[in-house]
Amino acid sequence: MTKLTDLTYLNEITNGDNETKKQLIAMFFSQMQQTSIDLQNALKDNDLNLLSKTAHTAKSSLKVMGINSIAEKMENLQNFAAKGENQNQYKYLVDMFLQNITAAISELKEEMEKL
């Protein structure tokens, strides 16, 4: 199975400092829990502004952890919701996020144990 995460950028911005990496990964876990809730609520309430803003925030955090495949989907969601376009894609993109973020977090937990 292909890894979802690539910590190259995280290693660069932390200069390889393991404690800083652990802190950033822990913050990411917390943020993704809230992001999951916000995306589901925005979808349920058809709140396109919240959907776009949440996807934007998620995209940036995902890129730091090298989770580019999901970041791309969040960028699509951000752009679609901001313009009110392709509404038939919103649920699919949120579902893809929810399915993949669990696997990505598992990978990051394994990485944390190595630090």
Care to describe what's here?
- The chain has 115 residues and is mostly helical.
- It has a single domain, classed as Up-down Bundle (Four Helix Bundle (Hemerythrin (Met), subunit A)), CATH 1.20.120.
- It has 5 helices and no strands.
- The chain has helices spanning 8-13, 18-45, 48-64, 68-83, 90-114.
- It is elongated and about 40 Å long.
Keywords:
Four Helix Bundle (Hemerythrin (Met), subunit A), 115 residues, 5 helices, mainly alpha
Summarize this entry quickly.
This protein has helices at residues 8-13, 18-45, 48-64, 68-83, 90-114. It contains 5 helices and no strands. The longest helix is centred in the N-terminal third of the chain and has 28 residues, at 18-45.
Identify the CATH architecture. Answer: Up-down Bundle
Shape summary? elongated
- Just give the CATH class: Mainly Alpha
Could you please say which CATH topology applies here? Four Helix Bundle (Hemerythrin (Met), subunit A)
How confident overall, as mean pLDDT?
96
User: What is the total number of structural domains?
Assistant: 1
Count all strands and give the number.
0
For the record, give the distance between the C-alpha atoms at the N and C termini, rounded to a whole number.
22 Å
- Report the biggest beta sheet as strand number plus sense, adding barrel if it closes: none
Please count the helical segments: 5
